[in-house]
Amino acid sequence: MRQYSIKDLERLSGVKAGTIRIWEQRYDLLEPIRTETNIRHYKDSDLKKLLNVSMLLEQGMRISKISEFSDSELKLTIATLLEQGESISAQTEFYIQALVVSMLELDEARFNNLFSRAVNEKGFLNAITDFIYPFLVKVGMMWGMDEVNPGQEHFVSCLIRQKILTGINDLPISAPTKNGYSYVLFLPEGELHEIGLILANYILRSHGYKVVYLGQDVPLADIQQVVDASDTTHLLTIFTASRTPLEYHQLLTSYDEAFPDIRIVYSGLDYYLNKIDWNPGSNVKIINGASEFIDYLNKLPI
Q: Can you give the pLDDT at residue 177?
């Protein structure tokens, strides 16, 4: 069973740790497990309740009123607000919290409903970049940060993966040659969190680029074979695994040396990339997130 620290709750809910402690004392809102040294640990049920509470607070309700709700009353109030609430664009954080709750409760129907609303309102690409992507970052899934339990992660990863792949399949069938660029997408050996790469695949194809998709855990030799056998102009990869700065330095240097004439686009968690003592060559572009990647593509010459 996944346990959360009070800092985990703060990050996922947006409620400050000090406020959570006050609510526990004043309203018995949560029931943490305490260690012998009085360190609090929280369960999924605590996180779900706090997320629901924070959603109601965002709607203007007072904590003194919310604390009087039973669990069933809390859920019913949230369900009503989701049905009658404003647009996702007007209350993005509210609906992202709802996605987190649907993940924790393994509620596929609610997740699908929220996703469909976002697509109808924003279009497919913006639903992914403005709604699903911030959700994935919030729960740590873009970077493999182990913020949710593995079962919940597999559940929501499969749902999102299916939706992006469906979006890719729904794109017009053509021979994309925009700019004459051809992208090879891969994750390095040991990298298994593929959603970000699948999203990059969709973004590139929707912008008219040719893509060769290799997927996760790809050895350097295999990438080299594909490059040698194709008209590759760009490589794109995302780093999510926890490596030492030296390991990252060695990995990045190996790519720089193997592909000196190919544009290499990297993305990943700043926490890791900022620790690397590495001087990227002029052929390297570092991207921070989906929106920045789209901006980068839009600024390229046609």
A: 63
Closest CA to 297 of 164, 221, 207, 177: 207
Q: How far apart are CA 127 and CA 117, in angstroms?
A: 9
CB 276 within 8 A of CB 252: yes
Q: What pTM was computed for the model?
A: 0.82
Read off the DSSP letter of residue 172: P
pLDDT in tens, 123-161: 999 999 999 988 988 887 655 555 667 788 889 989 999
List domains and CATH numbers for the chain: 1-85 (1.10.1660.10), 90-170 (1.10.1240), 172-298 (3.40.50.280)
Give the C-alpha separation, 7 to 14, whole Å.
Answer: 10
- CA angle (32, 38, 39) in 5-degree steps: 65
Residues 77/60, Cβ–Cβ less than 8 Å:
no
Residues 6+ apart with CB under 8 A from 280: 252, 256, 286
**Cα–Cα distances in Å, from 232 out to 107, 212, 262?**
41, 9, 8
How many C-beta neighbours within 10 Å does residue 185 have?
22
Q: How far apart are CA 237 and CA 197, in angstroms?
A: 7
Specify the pLDDT at position 248: 84
How many Å apart are CA 166 and CA 160, to the nearest integer? 10
Contact between residue 226 and residue 232 where contact means Cβ atoms under 8 Å apart: yes
